[in-house]
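Customer escalation, tier 2.

The customer says the design service returned an amino acid string that "doesn't look like it belongs to this structure." They asked us to rerun it and document both sides in this ticket. The original structure tokens are below, unchanged.
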């Protein structure tokens, strides 16, 4: 196993030399074998290794696991960090969240690079079956990856029997977790009932499953590459908190592409999103049929908002809600716009006003993703960059009036920028907008 793991690490570059590795060790056979292998490769790669042990509080004899892990830490000469579950929700999901939260907190606190867990090939197949039963999408079936963020799973190429045989041959001490046989836990039902029965009934079950899942992984890679290219065309604006996309262009896509693209975009904002099939179907229908200003919640604190002819996925719905609810002022000769700083009015004074085509115009405040085609420049520019370049204080940017047309295109930002598409037009039918600083 040692030479196989070394070859695997050389080929995949999963664990770079001189990395600082926090190894999750429960005391079970998988994790103690992982620790043994890493220890024997440590000098070759120049790794720094520390151990983390988490007590889920499910068994009265769990302290014996901690003693075993402590003995291993002493024999290898590694620092040991121990945590214990202190909550009342003992669901599988809650225990998993708490364990990974503990591991990540330790990793950050001690300044380490990666968290290593001992998931193996049987876990990979179990996860595929378990998530399929739960109704997972195409990616959920192969969600147990060798690398996800700071978490590395180096043993996915090995089966559980291989690991047990190796541990026994090397006389590596380990403990059996009695809760692993409790089929009241749904994953244990998959592990102890469904998989053994499938192995008995279907010859080469593990081999065939691995081949099919490898093909699915490759298909997902190609699908996501296509979705990424599609997003480059359709996404108007994206930052770490919001993604904005054109509704009309989105609705031209087939229903299956729309579903997949929506999930793909949501994952860019919230990888652990918690979407259900019902969420996805409801969201696609919302984008197709909702009116401007409508919004629906999504799992993970996200919000889906229809704002004019765009839909926005955002973790900061309040910023968009302000734009929808606050003002969309229709400019007309008898209805000037004013706030604490500016007054905008339609007039006939060509000396004081700016000349624009005589079409319906509106005033609103800025929105994330706003862009304009500045007069005298090529291409478009973010309104955010225009405010920054003009050194407009942050507290004033939210009060600056933005003149837009019926399609929500930025026409004019008083005293800052003019859209060349409107100010270069030749027409005999003009109106004048006059801006005063109050």
């Amino acid at each position: 196993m040692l030479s196989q793991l070394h070859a695997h690490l050389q080929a995949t570059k999963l664990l770079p030399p001189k990395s600082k590795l926090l190894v999750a060790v429960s005391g079970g056979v998988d994790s103690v074998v992982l620790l043994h292998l890493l220890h024997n490769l440590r000098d070759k790669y120049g790794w720094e290794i520390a151990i983390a042990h988490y007590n889920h509080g499910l068994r009265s004899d769990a302290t014996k696991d901690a003693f075993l892990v402590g003995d291993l830490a002493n024999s290898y000469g590694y620092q040991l960090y121990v945590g214990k579950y202190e909550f009342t929700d003992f669901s599988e999901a809650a225990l998993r969240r708490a364990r990974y939260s503990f591991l990540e907190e330790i990793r950050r606190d001690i300044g380490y690079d990666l968290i290593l867990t001992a998931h193996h090939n049987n876990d990979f197949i179990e996860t595929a079956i378990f998530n399929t039963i739960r109704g997972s999408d195409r990616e959920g079936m192969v969600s147990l990856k060798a690398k996800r963020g700071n978490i590395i799973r180096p043993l996915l190429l090995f089966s559980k029997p291989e690991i047990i045989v190796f541990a026994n041959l090397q006389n590596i001490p380990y403990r059996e977790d009695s809760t692993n046989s409790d089929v009241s836990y749904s994953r244990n039902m998959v592990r102890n009932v469904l998989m053994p029965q499938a192995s008995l009934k279907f010859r080469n079950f593990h081999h065939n499953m691995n081949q099919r899942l490898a093909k699915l992984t490759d298909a997902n890679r190609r699908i996501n590459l296509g979705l990424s290219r599609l997003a480059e065309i359709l996404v108007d604006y994206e930052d770490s908190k919001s993604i904005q996309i054109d509704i009309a262009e989105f609705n031209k896509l087939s229903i299956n592409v729309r579903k997949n693209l929506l999930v793909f975009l949501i994952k860019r904002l919230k990888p652990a999103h918690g979407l259900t099939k019902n969420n996805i179907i409801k969201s696609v229908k919302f984008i197709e049929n909702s009116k401007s200003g409508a919004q629906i919640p999504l799992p993970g604190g996200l919000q889906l908002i229809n704002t004019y002819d765009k839909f926005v996925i955002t973790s900061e719905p309040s910023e968009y809600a302000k734009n929808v609810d606050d003002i969309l002022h229709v400019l007309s000769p008898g209805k000037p716009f004013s706030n604490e700083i500016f007054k905008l009015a339609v007039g006939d004074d060509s000396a004081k006003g700016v000349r624009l085509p005589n079409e319906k115009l509106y005033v609103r405040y800025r929105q994330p993703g706003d862009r304009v085609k500045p007069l005298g420049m090529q291409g478009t520019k973010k309104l955010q960059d225009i405010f920054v370049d003009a050194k407009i204080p942050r507290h004033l940017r939210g009060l600056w009036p933005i003149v837009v047309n019926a399609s929500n295109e930025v026409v004019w930002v008083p005293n800052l920028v003019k859209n060349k598409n409107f100010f270069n037009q030749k027409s005999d039918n003009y109106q004048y907008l006059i801006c005063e600083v109050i």
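Tier 2 assessment: The sequence is consistent with the input. Residues 195 and 201 are 10 Å apart (CA to CA). Residues 322-326 have pLDDT under 50 and may be disordered. Sent an explanation to the customer and offered a walkthrough call.
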